[in-house]
């Protein structure tokens, strides 16, 4: 057998090619040497004495032309009429009369070659082509189409995950919920002694990129147990029953490796609700039923913990979420401001940063970003630093990385006409000025008219000073006014409108619609919900749950909100036309204005606003410091609790070792006493044997003496 399968494949392929070439050569050679003629032509050649010799071979007559024939140099052949039952008794006589030599030979046996060509060669070709195709299918389908009962789970050994809770930031609540699972896997006994049962499963729910998989690996890394990782889509493939078999195999392996963690990513691929629809997926439902059965069947006290992740919890089957299966639902949501800063610190640990880099500013400029986004920003900044020949990352690299993620790369080769550039400048300053002069808006961070690759000809960036979890009606209206500030500036300055406000109008319309249909901010509909949010962790698309008539009325309400916000923007810009022109002139010269420079121009006209803004900043900073202090206090408490748990665990371990040592010593002493008693018994037995032997010898000696005395007495007589 060939150990190198690749070499064997090449040998077979080349052999087939060589066989085909040889066969083709033989066929061409026969065509070149032999020429077929009619039987009548053969008879005419015989009459003209153009035949030198004839050979009868099976169903053919081979003819060698004479030197006088035009066909000299070729071997001719024709069909023997005898094959069709037509006898030619005069043929032999004619050949004899003409003086033509003739001979009869046994035809060559081509049956083996025919068999090879008809059956063996095609079968070999089909076999190897099919095998190659099947091998490619195996590679593309993970474990292979024929690995019916084998799961494709990746098994990480105790020291292979390399991830602990130190590598997870911005998810303190989720980590706190998972610490108990880690503690259980560390020391199962103390939970079993008190009668507590560990939750069989925990469901990690959150948007994509928030770190659900990372958290699961961190749990395994902290607990130092094997970690099985598998995607929900890996369970279901082309054969019915494969998914259920893989579920059984996965849990069988997990019980063998216990204690361990089984992580199923994107569990909604197999855990969708069985809604009883006529058209269902029997294979998926069978896999789900097997998963439910296995989760009921295994004993959680053995230390097998099931973790699953999804961003669509609303589609999961209720039976999967009931207590006893996935007992806990752990929300892994988007990080807040402090969380984003902590995540940036984690991802920049191995990146050389300049001393003046402020990760807090980057965290402020990325509201709504998840861990994956922040990791990408840090990497983009590092790449930019290398591109510009620096040995470390500066603040400008990080700021540019944020803008690249938001709007794309700078497109300086896109040259705008002076008129278009002026329109874009007024448009962006319109956004910024409305934002600066309203009370319920975020501060302006940057205004630019440098085009970007994602289609923006310019943009105005606002950064919130604090993390907001509630938004008032007044704040939403002011936000809509800011969105429409660009279009309002075009109307005020140019008395005309352009297509540049398309995205602003789209976002303003969506915000106004949410006010009316979801948030209950309409006087006409009051607190009536006209839409419901679906897939809140994905696209958050609203689903209408009202009639067509009501929806039409709601559209009118939305239009009124947008009109009022638009009128407010126009009023602000008309009242501050000189300020609008001044800031636009600066922007046209510099192309980019930072927030501080912009606000200095605004403060020049509204000095009282400076005091109000500074006061608000101090209050926000104070609140943030309090939040940081509380978080640190909480982290310290958790750290102390964990250290105390580890200390108690270590003390318990030492006590158990001491107890085991004492028990071992007592057992050794008991064995020693048993050995001594056995030795004493053996010694006593040996003494008894010696005494018995001595007595036997004495008796034998006495008997000999008696015999000797008797013999002497007989001799005397």
From TrEMBL:
It is found in: Cell membrane; Membrane. InterPro entries: AAA+_ATPase, AAA_lid_3, ATPase_AAA_core, ATPase_AAA_CS, FtsH, P-loop_NTPase, Pept_M41_FtsH_extracell, Peptidase_M41. It is a multi-pass membrane protein. The keyword Membrane applies. In the central section; belongs to the AAA ATPase family. Residues 684-693, 702-717 have a biased composition (Basic and acidic residues). GO terms for biological process: protein catabolic process; proteolysis. GO terms for cellular component: plasma membrane. Binds 1 zinc ion per subunit. The keyword Cytoplasm does not apply. This is ATP-dependent zinc metalloprotease FtsH. The lineage of its organism: Bacteria, Bacillati, Bacillota, Clostridia, Eubacteriales. The chain crosses the membrane at residues 7-28, 110-130. Keywords: ATP-binding, Cell membrane, Hydrolase, Membrane, Metal-binding, Metalloprotease, Nucleotide-binding, Protease, Transmembrane, Transmembrane helix, Zinc. The active site is at 428. Residues 670-717 are annotated as: Disordered.
């Amino acid at each position: 057998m060939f150990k190198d399968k690749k070499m064997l494949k090449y040998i077979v392929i080349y052999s087939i090619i060589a066989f085909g070439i040889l066969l083709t050569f033989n066929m061409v050679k026969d065509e070149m040497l032999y020429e077929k003629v009619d039987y009548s032509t053969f008879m005419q050649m015989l009459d003209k004495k153009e035949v030198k010799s004839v050979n009868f071979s099976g169903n053919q007559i081979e003819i060698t032309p004479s030197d006088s024939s035009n066909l000299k140099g070729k071997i001719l052949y024709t069909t023997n009429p005898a094959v069709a039952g037509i006898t030619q008794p005069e043929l032999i006589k004619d050949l004899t009369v003409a003086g033509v030599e003739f001979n009869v030979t046994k035809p060559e046996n081509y049956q083996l070659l025919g068999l090879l060509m008809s059956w063996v060669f095609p079968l070999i070709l089909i076999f190897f082509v099919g095998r190659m195709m099947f091998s490619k299918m195996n590679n593309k389908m993970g474990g292979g189409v024929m690995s019916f009962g084998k799961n494709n789970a990746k098994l990480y050994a105790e020291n292979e995950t390399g991830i602990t809770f130190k590598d997870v930031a911005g998810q303190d609540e989720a980590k706190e919920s998972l610490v108990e699972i880690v503690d259980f896997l560390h020391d199962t006994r103390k939970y079993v002694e008190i009668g507590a049962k560990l939750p069989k499963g925990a469901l990690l729910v959150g948007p994509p990129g928030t770190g659900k998989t990372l958290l699961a690996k961190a749990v395994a890394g902290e607990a130092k147990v094997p970690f099985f990782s598998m995607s929900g889509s890996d369970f279901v493939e082309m054969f019915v029953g494969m998914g259920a078999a893989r579920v059984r195999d996965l849990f069988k392996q997990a019980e063998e490796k216990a204690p361990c963690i089984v992580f199923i990513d994107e569990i909604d691929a197999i855990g969708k609700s069985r809604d009883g629809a006529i058209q269902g997926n029997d294979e998926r439902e069978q896999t789900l039923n097997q998963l439910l059965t296995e989760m009921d069947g295994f004993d959680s006290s053995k230390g097998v913990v099931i973790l699953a992740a999804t961003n669509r919890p609303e589609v999961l089957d209720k039976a999967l979420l009931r207590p006893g299966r996935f007992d806990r639902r752990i929300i892994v949501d988007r990080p807040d401001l402090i969380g984003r800063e902590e995540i940036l610190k984690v991802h920049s640990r191995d990146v050389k940063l300049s001393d003046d880099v402020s990760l807090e500013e980057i965290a402020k400029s990325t509201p709504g970003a998840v861990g994956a986004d922040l990791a990408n920003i840090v990497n983009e900044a590092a790449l930019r630093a290398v591109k510009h020949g620096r040995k470390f990352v500066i603040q400008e690299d990080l700021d540019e990385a944020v803008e690249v993620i938001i709007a794309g790369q700078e497109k300086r080769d896109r040259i705008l006409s002076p008129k278009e550039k002026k329109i874009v400048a007024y448009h962006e300053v319109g956004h910024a000025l409305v934002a600066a002069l309203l009370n319920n808006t975020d501060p302006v961070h940057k205004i630019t008219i440098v085009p970007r690759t994602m289609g923006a000809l310019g943009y105005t960036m606002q950064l919130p000073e604090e993390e907001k979890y509630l938004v008032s009606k007044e704040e939403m209206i002011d936000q809509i006014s800011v969105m429409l500030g660009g279009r309002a500036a075009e109307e005020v300055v140019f008395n005309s409108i352009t297509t540049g406000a398309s995205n602003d109008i789209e976002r303003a319309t969506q915000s106004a619609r949410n006010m009316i249909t979801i948030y209950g901010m309409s006087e006409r509909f009051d607190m009536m919900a006209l839409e419901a949010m679906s897939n809140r962790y994905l696209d958050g698309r609203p689903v209408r749950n009202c009639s067509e008539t009501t929806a039409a009325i709601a559209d009118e309400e939305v239009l009124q909100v947008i009109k009022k916000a638009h009128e407010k923007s126009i009023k602000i810009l008309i009242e501050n036309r000189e300020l609008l022109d001044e800031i636009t002139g600066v922007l046209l010269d510099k192309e980019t204005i930072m927030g501080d420079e912009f606000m200095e121009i605004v403060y020049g006209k509204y000095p009282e606003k400076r005091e109000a803004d500074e006061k608000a900043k101090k209050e926000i900073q104070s609140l943030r410091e309090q939040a940081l202090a509380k978080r640190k206090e909480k982290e310290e408490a958790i750290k102390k609790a964990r250290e105390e748990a580890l200390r108690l665990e270590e003390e318990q371990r030492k006590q158990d070792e001491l107890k085991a040592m004492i028990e071992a010593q007592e057992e050794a002493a008991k064995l020693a006493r048993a050995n001594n008693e056995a030795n004493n018994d053996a010694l006593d037995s040996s003494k008894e044997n010696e005494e018995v032997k001595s007595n036997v010898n004495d008796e034998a000696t006495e008997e000999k003496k008696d015999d000797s005395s008797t013999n002497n007495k007989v001799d005397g007589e």
